[in-house]
Amino acid sequence: MAIALVTGASSGLGEEFAWQLATAGHDVVLVSRSRDRLSEVAHLLEGATGRSAEVLPADLTTEKGRTAVAARLQAEARPVSLLVNNAGFGIGERFAESSWRHEKALLDIHVTAPLRLAHAAVPGMIARGHGAVLNVSSVAAHLANTTYAAHKRWAVDFTQALAGQLGGTGVTATAVLPGLVRTRFHDSDALSHMRHEFPDTVWLDPERVVASALAAVRRGQTVVTPSPGYAVAGAVLRAVPRRLTRGRRSMQKD
Questions:
Q1: Mean of the per-residue pLDDT values for the chain?
Q2: Which among 123, 163, 205, 227 is placed 20 to 30 Å from 187, CA to CA?
C-alpha cells in the first residue's frame, strides 16, 4: 500500500492532505510539532478511513527535527512514495524590523526542510522506480516584497529543477501555488488583519486546493495553481516588472 508523508499535518492544508490521501487509500505519516494534535488527527483518520496513520512529532525549524523526518523517509521498511512538503508559517514583519530568530525559522521551515526531506526521499523513490514530491508554494511566489515570497519563489524554482532531473525515473515533482486559503494560518496577531483586507471571493477552501494539488501529482504536472482567478493573477504578475510588485502585500496562505 502506498504511504504518504505530510508535514504540517496537524491543521490547515496539511490536515486536509492527510484526509484526502487516507480516503483515497494511502497510509499516512503525519509530521508536526504537536504530538497531542497529531495523535488526535491520526485517531480520527484511522477510525474514519481504516488506513494507518503514523505519528511523527518533529520541529522542522531544527536540525534534530529534520534529521528525524529524513530518517523516516530513508527507511526501507514501509517506504514513503509521496512526500508532501506543506509545513510553513508567516511572521507578518518587515525584514529590517524582524528578529534573526524569526527570519532563520522562516527560512528553515520553507527552504531548508523541503530541501533536506526531498534529498532524503528521492534516492529511494528512484531506486523503486516510482514516487512523487509535492511542494506547497504560494501565489506570493510571483511577488517580490517579503522573505516569505522569496522562499515560495524558491520552492517553485526548486521543484522545476528537480522535475527536470527526475525525467525518465518514474519519480515526479510538483509545486502547488494556492492563494489565500480558509485555514487557521491567518489567526495569528501578525496576519489576522488579512482576513478583513481581502473579500470573501478570493479565499479558497482547503478541500479544493488539496484536490487540485493531488490531481496534478497524478498527472505528473510540475506547477499548478488551484484557481482560475489566481492563475490569471499569477500570469499578470509574471508579466509585469518586478519593481511593480515590491510594494504589494504578500498573500501568505498556508
A1: 88
A2: 227
